[in-house]
Amino acid sequence: MCLILFAYHAHKKFKLIVAANRDEFYNRPTEPVHYWEDHPHILAGRDLLKMGTWMGITTTGRFAFLTNYRNPQEITEGQRSRGELVADFLKKEETPGSYMNEAAKKRHLYPGYNLLAGDTEELYYYSNIENKVQQLEKGIFGVSNHLLNSEWPKVKAGKEELSWIVDRNDDSIIDQLLALLRRDDPVSDEMLPKTGVTLEWERILSPIFIASDRYGTRSSSVLLMSDEEMIFTERVYSKDGLNDQQYKIKL
Known about the structure:
By secondary structure, the protein is α+β, with helices and mostly antiparallel strands. The chain is built from five helices and 13 strands. 20% of the residues lie in helices and 35% in strands.
């Protein structure tokens, strides 16, 4: 993932609302969201290069999401795949807090990341850059390729629109969230973050929805979680058009 916007205990019906975009090289092999054959309780997309995932849920109400921390000077050779952190949490029954504390002990094994993990009772955030395990309380949050609630323009704009959608509280919430994730508004140069990539790449990476010749937003995901069920919607973008899938899990 490269952008995760989420509302926690901020909506009348849904205690968790997630709207997220996965940005990746177009030629990286990927499976769309499905129940994994080797772990049938996991519902997630899958990176076929490293066999991890960027976002997923389970039939028991566990969920996890991850973004990379952007640092072009970071040496990643010999380090482990960040996608295994999401997959491992979904495979296990360990509490979110315990899992995050264990992840912190292994922080040096992975390139920079932001990890969110939770279940029907609690939600935690951890970044191996900041190295601070946090249990999150209610509110509107956003994380891209920096830390939680950074001042990046797309994070700020995304949180503002998510807050508006949450307050509207109508039945078209999934369509509204997918529309939010498709926003490709350019950011003026003076507002761009300085993350160590070229100005051209800062411009390309600045919108909520990214498109370039070889890298961009591959899919958008929306998760709604109430006391009764989880609704997971994924929209995959390809040269052939859009492919939507939706799954519902009773809790």
